């Protein structure tokens, strides 16, 4: 049950409307998280700008795998439903790869290095080791890519925290709890 208002289209602040309308057109509907987040044009528009910029980082399979790993660590069930859906339908990841990503891994060695690094970033609050950095570099990631991984971790953490605090009703198919996978 949501712990904040999920805005109707008529309630959306004017300063959030253009961004929310664009996201709605892109997705095909307005997710409850976005309809709630839009209450703060400052926070919502900043998040949407970050989302738009980071949608150009890495590849979609890696981005979704990082989103799954981070959301699992942060215990965000809303985001796990979203990322599981997008990983399957947009990134075309098979179900076993989605489960693997939630556990902080991937079958592809390069993506595995990125997901493992992202998980270490969130678990250690950024206090990664030199060996962690070496591993992601050795997998072929540039300094710019590593910065993008850290930025993705931060962006996904923002939505995880938002959704954990406000608990909007889920509008994507439910996923099994972590203990069941």
Automatic annotation (TrEMBL):
Pfam family membership, one: CMD
Taxonomic lineage: Bacteria, Pseudomonadati, Pseudomonadota, Alphaproteobacteria, Hyphomicrobiales
Record's keyword terms, sorted: Oxidoreductase, Peroxidase
Signal peptide: none
UniProt entry tagged with the keyword Transport: no
Any one GO molecular function term: peroxiredoxin activity
Protein name: Uncharacterized peroxidase-related enzyme
Sequence ranges assigned to domain Carboxymuconolactone decarboxylase-like in this UniProt record: 44-102
């Amino acid at each position: 049950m949501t712990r904040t208002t999920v805005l109707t289209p008529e309630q959306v602040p004017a300063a959030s409307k253009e961004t929310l309308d664009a996201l709605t057109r892109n997705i095909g509907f307005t997710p409850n998280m976005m309809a709630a987040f839009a209450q703060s044009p400052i926070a919502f528009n900043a998040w949407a700008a970050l989302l738009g910029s980071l949608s150009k980082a890495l590849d979609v399979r890696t981005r979704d795998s990082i989103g799954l790993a981070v959301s699992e660590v942060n215990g965000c069930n809303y985001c796990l439903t979203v990322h599981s859906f997008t990983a399957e339908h947009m990134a075309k990841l098979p179900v076993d790869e989605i489960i693997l990503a939630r556990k902080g891994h991937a079958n592809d060695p390069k993506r595995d290095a990125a997901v493992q690094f992202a998980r270490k970033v969130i678990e250690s609050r950024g206090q990664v080791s030199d060996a962690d950095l070496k591993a992601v570099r050795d997998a072929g990631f540039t300094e710019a890519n590593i910065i993008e991984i850290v930025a993705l971790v931060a962006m996904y953490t923002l939505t995880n925290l938002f959704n954990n605090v406000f608990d909007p009703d889920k509008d994507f198919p439910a996923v099994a709890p972590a203990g069941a996978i």
